[in-house]
Design brief:
By secondary structure, this protein is of the alpha/beta class. The protein folds into 2 domains: about 90 residues, Glutaredoxin, CATH 3.40.30; about 110 residues, Glutathione S-transferase Yfyf (Class Pi), Chain A, domain 2 (Up-down Bundle). A hairpin with a 2-residue loop joins strand 4 and strand 5. Helix 4 packs antiparallel against helix 5. The model has no long low-confidence stretch (mean pLDDT about 95). Bound molecules: glutathione (GSH). The site of glutathione has 11 residues, from helix 3.
């Protein structure tokens, strides 16, 4: 992973338009780094998106990965591409029922949970409910995760899989809305799981600040 200026970049290397704090971009960067894929990275400003990105992906969201003529502008597609083209000898094999469980969790995360999380994060913009009520709406998913983590270190088994990588950046956001509340909560398994992921070398690597910002 290498931060480069627009003009400086190598044309042949995969190139990721990214935003450091975006949870979707985090999961994409983690999958690429975990797969030992070399790529250049362009840290964008969400307020002033580069024309080079908009011209290949007009919807204007990050992450966007360009590999020669191929453009992937959905984080899960980028992850899939990274694991398919992995240069790591680490096995990502999951049984089909585990695959199904992982996909279901990600679907809930990216759908209903993400909507409730946004209301909790920006509770001042949604005064129809109190901050606590917005937080309570999120519990349904935390309860699912806490239950899954009852007997395993990670969501699918004792190894970190794409399910953990896809979901934890959003749970980290949930934690950061009210860290004191979270630390005192009964979500003990989730707290342990989150610590493992946040303290991992992989996460530290993808959160390095670009030198130009
Ligand atoms: N479904 C997309 C969602 C990506 C997304 O919404 N990214 C946010 C940043 S976290 C974004 O780029 N928003 C556009 C904006 O804020 O202008 C994906 O999985 O890649």
């Amino acid at each position: 992973m290498n931060y480069v200026e627009q003009l400086n970049r190598s044309k042949s290397k995969p190139y990721l338009f990214s935003y450091r704090r975006c949870p979707y971009a985090m999961r994409a960067r983690m999958a690429l780094v975990e797969s030992k894929i070399e790529f250049d990275i362009y840290e964008i400003s969400l307020r002033s998106k580069p024309q080079e990105m908009l011209s290949i992906s007009p919807k204007g969201t990050v992450p966007v990965l360009r590999v020669n003529e191929l453009v992937l502008d959905e984080s899960l597609e980028i992850m899939k591409w990274a694991y398919k083209n992995s240069k790591s000898n680490q096995s990502n094999f999951l049984e089909s029922d585990q695959q199904t469980a992982a996909k279901k969790l990600i679907e809930i995360n990216d759908g209903k949970f993400k909507d409730f999380l946004d209301c909790y994060k920006y509770f001042e913009r949604y005064p129809n409910k109190s901050k606590q009520e917005h937080r309570e709406n999120c519990y349904f998913f935390l309860d699912i995760l806490e239950k899954r983590l009852k007997d395993t270190l990670f969501l699918i088994n004792d190894e970190r899989t794409f399910a953990d990588i896809s979901i934890f950046p959003f749970i980290r956001q949930f934690m950061n809305v009210d860290k004191v509340w979270f630390d005192e909560s009964d979500y003990t398994k989730i707290k342990k799981w989150l610590t493992l992921l946040v303290d991992s070398d992989l996460f530290k690597k993808i959160m390095v600040k670009p030198s130009c910002s």
